[in-house]
Write a structure and sequence with these properties.
140 residues, single chain, alpha+beta, 5 strands, elongated
Amino acid sequence: MLQINDKITIQDWELTENFTRAQGPGGQNVNKVSTAVELRFEAARSPNLLVPVKTRLKKLAGRKWTSDGAIILRVEDTRSQARNREIAKDRLKQLILQALIQPKRRIATRPTLGSQKRRLAGKLQRGVVKSLRGKVKDVE
């Protein structure tokens, strides 16, 4: 069981762990020991998460979200299987906590009159600078 906050806990049936061999340097240890962890969380079927939280979680997860509604996190940061399991669960917890935060609604505002005038004055000044770059005519 994974405790997210006071109200949300993820049950064991929602989490599946697979262990595979890690990539990268590590000598013979990499070839013998399955230390990489692939944590699968059935987010779409989770009864503990509300629908708006699930939609935000899907957006945050990106490519980690599968077509059947699961989140797959692969961790092979350390050479210890136990530490990789802890890291994977912590990353899942942080992802869910981030999805719990409801974003503020943006209130549309208009630019002030002073900022509009400054913008137009800057554009006019820039146009003058560019027009002075032209060919110089001889007056005779």
